[in-house]
Amino acid sequence: MTYLCLADLEHAARDVLPAEIWDFLAGGSGAEASLVANRTALERIFVIPRMLRDLTGSTTEVELLGRRSALPMAVAPVAYQRLLHPSGELATARAARDAGIPYTICTLSSITLEEIAAVGGRSWFQLYWLRDEKRSLELVRRAEDCGCEAIVFTVDVPWMGRRLRDMRNGFALPESVTAANFDAGAAMHRSTLGVSAVADHTAREFAPATWDTVAEVRAHTDLPVVLKGILAVEDACRAVDAGVDGIVVSNHGGRQLDGAVPGIEMLGEIAAAVSGGCEVLLDGGIRSGTDILKAIALGASGVLVGRPVMWGLATAGRQGARQVIDLLAVELRDAMGLAGCDSVSAVRRLSTRAPGTADGPASGTHRM
Q: Which of 5, 76, 182, 187 is packed most tightly, with the most Cβ within 10 A?
């Protein structure tokens, strides 16, 4: 089947997935205000295109964390991908490898990080901080040993947000899907109405991270360390002071604090505040190549894309995941050309407008 945009794949994925698994993938926390706001905020931003530019030799290539990527994009960490397709994380990792972009292995992957990294390509490892500190640092060591290029430390999940869809469904993992990187116990598979077994598991296993935790992770690895889940300018500046190599501006796809500001609304201010002190990426709500263009214009070096890649995985495994990445690549090339940009660095010099704001260009943008 021919899909012309990511919305086509979203509809197809919803048609093939059981309702409770769709809710686990698509849902947010609370009333899902932040989930909806991620899209609303992106849709409010408009780019001011430039004309009569030489587009000869246009390219979408960029450096992310010091290495070449075919697109200013990485696959975001998403848990338990074998819920969506039997090949799970192996299929999405192969799609990312073939497309020439980084793939982020999740702590809560349903296939071991060693098996996923063995696919090849560029792998980053996403870390949740566990109550067992030794086990957390062991995951970092394992990621180093199997060739991962960065530690993406998620700092916005001291415990899982109240995801009402999962609670209403009494969501639990089927016996065939487990937390492959450590023993999660049988409770993950026990369905209880009004309780998310996944959230119950994280409440038992996860511990709130602190700046001291960040320092400990930094001290235990020579890999680049990226903090995912930063929204406050003050936290972004402190991250630079802590010696991290990057931050991901993100409200966790609307799945943690409901009412948290969309990342795109803070991106320009954060990028300006850190002023090149570390790499800045955006996560949350990206649904088109034009969205990637907007994020870069506001100061991001790239974006993380999660749910859309999972839609592709659900519909057609590795081929579907690759189709999502290819669609975003086509749309980004089109958007760049129509905006008068021959490179990602040129996109960073575009100006933007958000209707209703009094101060003209959005904070942190630059004019060509």
A: 76
